[in-house]
Amino acid sequence: MSSDKPVRNFLLCLGVQKAGTTWLHDYLDGHTQTDMGFTKEYHILDTLSPESGATRLFEKRERAIKLLERKPDMFSGSNYGFWKRFAFYLDIETYYDYYTGLLQVDGVRLSGDMTPDNGLASVEMLQALQAGFLRRNIGVKPLILLRDPVERCWSAVRMGKRNAAAGKSSKPQKGDGDEATLLRQSYNSKGRSYRTRYEIIFSKIEQVFSRDEYFSSFYETLFTTEEIKRFCEFAQINFEEPKFSKRLNVSERASEISDDLRREVAQEFKATYYYCADRWGRELILNIWPNAHFVL
Predict the structure, then answer these.
(1) Are 162 and 32 in contact (CB under 8 A)?
(2) 166: nearest Cα among 85, 83, 251
């Protein structure tokens, strides 16, 4: 790349939840050549996509009404981020302009949106985003991190329990609180299932981006110097030493789950295991995913 044309890229996280996106965002947030903005997850693309947007936009509208009723402090604290995102909902061009401004700062080569649920966005939304940034001479760098489907679903259950206990979730956990019970009740729910069927996410990505245009990796192999160097080369930023000992958004296991339940969940995502084995090799998937042997 010529010296008179600075590198300016937008990193678009397309998933998945519980696969290392929080750790990677923290790494990038401390990198000398990046500016990741005011938050990790913006939830713009998934909110504006037809599949999920109607419900989410209604929730945002209701919150906006409540904040407007509390006029004295409606722009204080965390409300600032909400109103910033609300402007993006009203006009997606302001979303592109926001990142363009971040990337105009001297020395900043990469910015991005690390919302895992961007993977829920429609093909049309992804095409619009690519076009919006290209109009501003900014490259789009899609990223997707994967995790053993059984482990991902189980980790999501633990996160849900943790958030509910901390009062951070408006969605009550079903069951008696036992992880195995909650996992059995939820692994085939619409939201959890869709986020774990990686073949569906890839089918959308590849309608917009070719395989050499996006970065994919695994939670199980991400935390190595070699893999972070590979990512930095993709993102066109210098490699800076990561802090692999730093643990973020980790949901500790309160108990184990049985092999029977592991097999049951793995069978639900049999097509996903086979897709990944066909793409990256059966030996690799069996080696890095502890539950793959139940179906492969």
Answers:
(1) no
(2) 251
Can you list the positions of beta strands (E) in 118-214?
139-146
Question: Are the beta carbons of 209 and 123 closer than 8 angstroms?
Answer: no
> Where in the sequence is the domain holding 135, given as residue range(s)?
9-294
68 within domain boundaries = yes
Q: Side by side, which strands form the sheet with 139-146? A: 110-113, 9-13, 139-146, 215-218
**41 close to 140: Cβ distance less than 8 angstroms:** no
Query: CB count, 10 Å around CB of 118?
Result: 26
Flag whether 90 is in a domain.
yes
Both tokens of residue 292? 């793959």
- CA dihedral of 12, 60, 37, 241, whole degrees rounded to 10: -60
pLDDT, tens digit, for every residue of 50-59?
A: 766 555 655 6
Question: Among residues 247, 56, 253, 268, which one has the least CA distance to residue 161?
Answer: 253
Contact 98, 88 (CB under 8 A): yes
Half-sphere exposure of 184 (CA within 13 A, CB side): 14
Residue 96 CA: distances (Å) to CA of 10, 87, 92, 182, 207 = 10, 12, 7, 39, 21
Q: How many domains in the chain? A: 1
Q: Looking at the whole model, is its pTM more than 0.85?
A: yes
Per residue in 87-139, pLDDT tens? 888 889 999 999 999 999 999 999 999 999 999 899 999 999 999 999 999 99
CATH number at 155 reads: 3.40.50.300
> What's the length of the chain?
296
